[in-house]
Amino acid sequence: MMKKFRDNYSIVKELAALKRYLRKGHAKASLIAADYQRYESGLRGEQSTDYYLSGLPKNDYYIYRGLRLLSDQYAFQMDTLLMNSRFLLPIETKNHAGIIEIDENNHFFHIVNGNRIKIKSPLQQVSRQVYELQRWLIKKHLPNIPTPWLVVFSNPTTSIRNFSNDPLTKERVVTIEDLKEHVLNLTELFASKKASEKFTNSELKKINDYLLSHHSPKTTSILKSYNITIKDLETGVMCSQCQRFAMFYKNTLWHCPHCLATSPDAHVQALLDYFILIKSTITLKEGCHFLHLSSRNIVRRLFSTMNLKGQGHTRARQYSLPDK
């Protein structure tokens, strides 16, 4: 059963908003675009992993997505963590397309269009996760549950050439189509071991409660992460057709003077980006400034189309997104 949902959705949304509103020609624009592409690709890969794991017997497995735990003063995050009565299984997901080649010494290469490029080994990442997870379990005085691992390449077009001399690398680096089968095989393997301990429902519940209560999502704002200030952002409403910030509001429609596109709700994305990038509340005055409008009545009406919650009175009234 799914026990935790991904925080990566919010990271991708934050980067998308920052891409839209970062001033043209900013020195960090290419970095942010590259990070957006990387996170978005990673999220698609993790969603593919979620889909294939959803075929497992729901009552036999706990599935945690994007779990981030603190070990001493450092944090470690697992793409996916799977638990059953025999083990805790970190799963590291990679979404490379093309051919993945692993040489005899466990070096990883990505082959696309005939180009062979060495890439960072996911074995190092998952090994660190296993190490930190084991330390975390000991520090929390939780049952000493085994922690095997898997690396999954989630792009359905990916093929793996595995020449590793390490038997574990041969067994534990898999394509997405083989993921479910490998999880079931691991379950059968651990169940067949005479020395393998089967954990009780109460022990699993204790571990589950600790994992969920100790999840520690990142809280740093996206602007602070990139050392960007509000002054580096555009204001106004972006035209979804030509991506320019010149739309004006007239007769209940937003009009773009460049490509002549119109929209009744172009302000919605603008305000959602405001709440993501700047702050979680907005006043009528701030709305006028951000949307490039002179009428508070129009801004109030636009806020109402989004069912924004109002709190406070008169000019200082703060508006925010409705509760989910």
CATH-defined topology of the largest domain: Trna Endonuclease, Chain: A, domain 1
Order of adjacent strands in the largest pleated sheet: 1-2-3-4-8-10
Query: What percent of the residues sit in helical stretches (DSSP H or I)?
Result: 25-40%
**Cα-atom radius of gyration:** 24 Å
The computed structural class is: alpha/beta
Can you tell me the CATH architecture of the largest domain?
Answer: 3-Layer(aba) Sandwich
Work out the strand percent: 15-25%
CATH class of the largest domain: Alpha Beta
What does the oligomeric state look like here?
single chain
Unreliable parts: none
Please count the beta strands (DSSP E, at least 2 residues each).
Answer: 15
**Total of domains:** 2
* Distinct helical segment count: 10
Largest sheet, if any? 6 strands, mixed
Q: Which overall shape is indicated by the principal axes computed on the Cα atoms?
A: elongated
Order of helices and strands: EHHEEEEEEHEEHEHHHEEEHHHEE
User: How would you state the average pLDDT, rounded?
Assistant: 93
What's the end-to-end separation, in Å? 23 Å
Describe the protein in words.
Residues 41-156 form the NERD domain. InterPro entries: NERD. It comes from Pullulanibacillus pueri. This is NERD domain-containing protein. The protein is elongated. The two termini are 23 Å apart. It has helices at residues 8-21, 29-53, 122-139, 167-172, 179-192, 201-213, 222-225, 266-277, 284-291, 296-305, and strands at 2-4, 62-71, 74-83, 88-94, 99-102, 108-112, 115-119, 150-153, 159-162, 173-175, 248-250, 253-255, 262-263, 309-311, 318-320. By secondary structure, the protein is an alpha/beta fold. Helix 1 packs antiparallel against helix 2. The strands form four sheets. It has a six-stranded mixed beta sheet, sandwiched between helices. A four-stranded mixed beta sheet has the order 7-6-5-9, with no helix packed on it. It has a three-stranded antiparallel beta sheet with strand order 11-12-13, with no helix packed on it. It has ten helices and 15 strands. The model has no long low-confidence stretch (mean pLDDT 93). Strand 2 and strand 3 form a beta hairpin. It folds into two domains: 2-213, Trna Endonuclease, Chain: A, domain 1 (3-Layer(aba) Sandwich); 235-320, no CATH class. The longest helix is centred in the N-terminal third of the chain and has 25 residues, at 29-53. Helix content is 38%, strand content 21%.
